[in-house]
Amino acid sequence: MPFVTDPWNGLQFYELSHMWGCGVPSYPGDDDVIFDHGVKHAQFGVQAYKIRTNFHTGTHMIAPIHMQARGEDLSQITPSRFFGNGVILDLRNKKNWDKITADDLKAAGEIQNGDIVAINTGWHIKYSDSMEYFGEAPGLTEDAANYLISKKPKFIAIDTPFIDCPAATSLTPHLGRPGPYMKRLLPIYREKTGRDALEDYPGFYPAHKALAAAGIPVIQQMGGDVDEITGKRATMIAAPWKIWRGDACPVRFAAIFDPTGEVRIDTGVWQEEGK
Fold first, then answer.
1. Which CATH architecture describes the domain 4-24+56-257?
2. Widest CA span in the chain
3. d(Cα 159, Cα 144) in Å, to the nearest integer?
4. What tens digit of pLDDT does each residue of 8-64 get?
5. 39 and 47 Cβ atoms separated by less than 8 Å
6. Residue 274: its pLDDT value, please?
7. Burial class (CB in 10 A: 0-12, 13-18, 19+), 1
8. In whole angstroms, what is the distance from residue 34 CA to residue 255 CA?
9. Whether pLDDT at 2 is above 90
10. Distance of alpha carbon 111 from alpha carbon 12, whole angstroms
11. How many whole angstroms separate alpha carbon 35 and alpha carbon 264?
12. 58-111: per-residue pLDDT in tens?
C-alpha cells in the first residue's frame, strides 16, 4: 500500500523512512545496531530492549553541529523546522558517482523559499550492506548546496547514504581527516571510470559542510514510498529525538496529502463545554 489514510480526517500519509533496527546497514567503519532483549514476554509478561547504536544509521537527521563546532544540536533546532510544505525533486536519472549540480536541481522543479526539499535519486532501492550502496552513490556538489541555501529550506532530505558523493567523504583518504573507511573505493573508482576519485572530488564533505554552516539540517538515507510522490509538492514532517549535543538521530519521515483541502491545524482556542 503506497499510503495510509487517516480514518478521522482523510489525510494520506506516505512513509519516507527505511525500517530501522538490529541488522540495518551501517556505514563502513561504524558499529552495527545491537538490540538486547533483556525483558521478555515469556518471562515477565512485558518486553523491553536495550539498544547500542551509532545514531548515524538508517534514515537519520543530522544537525549542523555534526559539521560545525558551534552549530545547533538536535535539541536546539525548533520543532517548526521539522514540519512544513515542500517539494520532492526527481533526480532518478543520476547514476553511480554522478554529480548533482545546481543546474540539475533547477531543472528538476521549482523550490519555494522556506521549503522542505527532498531529493529522490532512486538510490534508496539499493539500500543494503553493499559496496555499491555506500561507495558509488551520486551526491551534491558545493554549488548545488549553495543554491539550496539561497532558498532558505527548513531541511534537506536525500535518499543516498551521504549528501556528498562518497568519494568526498571519510570513505576515502583526505589529509588530516578520519578514514579511509572504504580502502577499496579508490581502485574500484579508477577501474570503472578510468579517473582518479580524489581529483574528481578533492573536497571533504563540501556540500554538507556548506549546509551545516548555513544552519540547515539534513536527512540521509530517505526511503519508503518516496517514488510514489516524486515530482509533487507535499506537507512533510520529521520526528528526531531532542538530544542535548546530539549531532544525529534515526528519524521517522513522512509526507502528507490532504485530498479534500478541508483539514486545518487547530486554532488552540479552548473549547467551552456545550459549545
1. 3-Layer(bba) Sandwich (3.50)
2. 76
3. 16
4. 999 999 999 999 998 899 999 998 999 898 899 999 999 998 898 999 999 999 999
5. yes
6. 58
7. exposed
8. 29
9. no
10. 22
11. 40
12. 999 999 999 999 999 999 999 999 999 999 999 999 999 999 999 999 999 999
Q: Give the whole-angstrom CA distance, residue 67 versus residue 212.
A: 6
Region for residue 252 given its phi and psi (left: phi exceeds 0; alpha: psi -120 to 50; beta: otherwise): beta
Neighbour tally for 107: CB within 10 Å:
12
Residue with cell 519508503: 224
Cα distance between residue 118 and residue 132, in whole Å: 22
pTM of the model: 0.94
8 A C-beta contact, residue 238 and residue 61: yes
Helical H segments across the chain, by residue range: 41-44, 102-108, 131-135, 142-150, 185-193, 197-200, 206-213, 226-229
